[in-house]
Amino acid sequence: xxxxxxxxxxxxxxxxxxxxxxxxxxxxxxxxxxxxxxxxxxxxxxxxxxxxxxxxxxxxxxxxxxxxxxxxxxxxxxxxxxxxx
Length: 85
Description:
The protein is of the alpha+beta class. Helix 1 runs parallel beside helix 3. Strands 2-1-3-4 form a four-stranded mixed β-sheet, sandwiched between helices. Helices cover 44% and strands 20% of the residues.
C-alpha cells in the first residue's frame, strides 16, 4: 500500500468522514493537522495545486483531493486499485 497523507483540522466533519473511509479500507495514513498552522496550510495548498480546504488527501504521488473526491473514487471502484499500487 502506498503512503497516505491526510491534511486535516480537528473540527472538520469532512476530515472525519475521509479518515473513516480510509480506516474501513484498512488503510494506514499519516494525519497532518494544519489547524492554527498558517505555514503548514500554505505548504499543503502549494502541494495541492492551490487548494486550501481540508481535508487534502494524497495517496502515494497522487493528489486525490478532498473528502468528496475520495468518496467519488470509492463509488467509481477506483479507490481500491489506487490503494493497492
